[in-house]
Amino acid sequence: MRRSIDDATDDHPADEDDRPTASWAIAVSDDCEACGDAALRVVLTLEEVGRSGLGLVAHLAPATARRLRAAIAAALREIGEDPGG
């Protein structure tokens, strides 16, 4: 089972050659055989726009996904933004 949750591109200017536009996607999956426990994972994919299949895929256990969420919330607070609920 794999279900897409959300995807988008980053907010970096598309016309800058030094940093190509990146895309991200979040999904839920139970197909991580290497994870060993057949548990559901949050899947984070990061790749350069136009280079599908050449990015990085992270299979995050629930605790790791919560840690990533907390890190993003802390970064938002650091720049004076409300991290939301």
What does this protein look like?
This protein has 85 residues and is of the alpha+beta class. It has one domain. It contains 1 helix and 4 strands. Strands 1-2-3-4 form a 4-stranded antiparallel β-sheet. The radius of gyration is 15 Å and the shape is flat. The model has no long low-confidence stretch (mean pLDDT 89).
Layout: helices, strands, pairs:
Blueprint: E1 2-9, E2 22-29, E3 41-48, E4 56-60, H1 62-78
Key features of this structure:
1 helix; alpha+beta; 34% strand; 85 residues; 4-stranded antiparallel beta sheet
Short description:
The protein is built from one helix and four strands; from the N terminus they run ββββα. The protein has one helix at residues 62-78, and strands at 2-9, 22-29, 41-48, 56-60.
State the secondary-structure class.
alpha+beta
Rg calc = 15 Å
| Strand residues, percent | 25-35%
The global form is flat
